[in-house]
Fold:
Amino acid sequence: MDKKITFRHMEPTPVIEEFAYKHLERLDKLLEGERTPIYIELVLEAFPNHAHQRVELLVKTPHFDLVAHHEGAEMYQEIDRVIDIMMQQIRRAKERFNDDQKKKDSYRSA
Structure:
């Protein structure tokens, strides 16, 4: 699993990186049974003119490509929120993929 954190308009800090990687581990459990390669990119963006943060998370697997983003005032809260959003998207995508596989299998047996 390839993970990358990108900082835009802000200096990278070890504290934020450690916090982000710790929260990205939650996605590892959901993606455990997926085929590889799996790419995860977390983009952290600060707007210098005002206290506004944007976090975007991209997950690419052989079966699906997902994007989640959230904006707000506190970077740590936005990271947590975008991880929660992505977890929901991954669950839905896996359900859809499994349903499609079941449909294909039922056509083959008929």
